[in-house]
């Protein structure tokens, strides 16, 4: 059984007890991620709060979530991604709720969504974007959850890993398409994956390279393919100064 299959089974088991209500909150207004990425030069960064992961174990368990999110925002991140899965990533929906109260950039609920209830939870907790992983959903479910995401006034970041999934995301009409460089079955990470799928890029969609970006060289390599966004977790969580790390990513690019 792959890790993705295990995670999805856990998600289905958790549905019955899933808490979707949050106190009525005046969240700071947040622009659309798609609008920010269209304007980003050369690309925007979605900066992630990630305490631990199945592939790397503990990354930074004791993190000041609000402080970290504010550092990302101050350093110019286009959005904050918060991993909310508890069982495999040691995340929490409360992390996302606290972040959403404090920042004025889009907030992505990074989780494994299999049901509308999770989209309601994301919305009520203050997220403005949710992740829909194509590999986790059959076409009927993918369409249903995509339509529901839009109905609830959220943006969907539709994640793919290979050609077949890319075709399904394009057929869906998704505006934000994330290419995960990590194979969720083997954990192998390669930026080549973004390069391989770049032949599918169109002007209508916005493409985001996800996972395995650890240096300015990686960021610039990914951006060369035409992606307008980078999703970065581990390196930002391990950085002593996440602002300086973000600042460094496109410095050489600008100097050219
Ligand atoms: O990170 C993992 O080990 C992982 C395992 C199984 C499913 C998903 C996983 N990660 C989720 C992500 O997509 C990443 O958190 C995100 O793209 C950032 O990646 P990185 O910069 O490499 O931390």
Automatic annotation (TrEMBL):
The protein's name in its UniProt record = Indole-3-glycerol phosphate synthase
Q: Which superkingdom?
A: Bacteria
Q: Which InterPro entries match?
A: Aldolase_TIM, Indole-3-glycerol_P_synth, Indole-3-glycerol_P_synth_dom, Indole-3-GlycerolPSynthase_CS, RibuloseP-bd_barrel
Q: Where is the signal peptide?
A: none
CDD domains named in the record: IGPS
Matching SUPFAM superfamilies, A to Z? Ribulose-phoshate binding barrel
| Family under the similarity heading | Belongs to the TrpC family.
Enzyme class per UniProt: lyase
Q: In which pathway does it act?
A: Amino-acid biosynthesis; L-tryptophan biosynthesis; L-tryptophan from chorismate: step 4/5
**PANTHER family to which the protein is assigned, alphabetical:** INDOLE-3-GLYCEROL-PHOSPHATE SYNTHASE (PTHR22854:SF2), TRYPTOPHAN BIOSYNTHESIS PROTEIN (PTHR22854)
Record-level GO BP terms: L-tryptophan biosynthetic process
Q: Where is the Indole-3-glycerol phosphate synthase domain?
A: 5-248
Does the record's keyword annotation contain Lyase? yes
What does the record give as EC number? 4.1.1.48
**Which reactions are catalysed by this chain?**
1-(2-carboxyphenylamino)-1-deoxy-D-ribulose 5-phosphate + H(+) = (1S,2R)-1-C-(indol-3-yl)glycerol 3-phosphate + CO2 + H2O
| Keywords, sorted A to Z | Amino-acid biosynthesis, Aromatic amino acid biosynthesis, Decarboxylase, Lyase, Tryptophan biosynthesis
What GO molecular function terms would the record report?
Answer: indole-3-glycerol-phosphate synthase activity; phosphoribosylanthranilate isomerase activity
């Amino acid at each position: 059984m792959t890790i993705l299959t295990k995670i999805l089974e856990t998600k289905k088991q958790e549905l019955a007890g899933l808490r979707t209500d949050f106190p009525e909150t005046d969240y700071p207004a947040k622009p659309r991620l798609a609008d920010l990425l269209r304007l980003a030069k050369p690309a925007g960064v979605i900066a992630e709060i990630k305490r631990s992961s199945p592939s790397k174990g503990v990354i930074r368990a004791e993190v000041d979530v609000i402080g970290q999110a504010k550092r990302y925002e101050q350093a110019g991140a286009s959005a904050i991604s918060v991993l909310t899965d508890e069982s495999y990533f040691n995340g929490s929906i409360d992390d996302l709720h606290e972040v959403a109260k404090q920042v004025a950039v889009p907030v992505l609920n990074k989780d494994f969504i299999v049901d509308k209830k999770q989209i309601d939870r994301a919305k009520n907790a203050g997220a403005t974007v949710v992740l829909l992983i194509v590999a986790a959903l059959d076409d009927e479910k993918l369409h249903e959850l995509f339509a529901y995401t839009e109905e609830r006034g959220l943006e969907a970041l539709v994640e793919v890993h290979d050609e077949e999934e890319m075709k399904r995301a394009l057929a869906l009409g998704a505006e934000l398409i994330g290419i995960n460089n990590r194979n969720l079955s083997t954990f192998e990470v390669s930026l080549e994956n973004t390069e391989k799928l770049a032949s599918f890029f169109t002007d209508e969609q916005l493409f985001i390279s996800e996972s395995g970006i650890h240096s300015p060289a990686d960021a610039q390599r990914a951006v060369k393919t035409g992606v307008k966004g980078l999703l970065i977790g581990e390196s930002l969580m391990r950085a002593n100064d996440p602002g300086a790390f973000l600042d460094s990513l496109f410095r050489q690019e600008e100097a050219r």
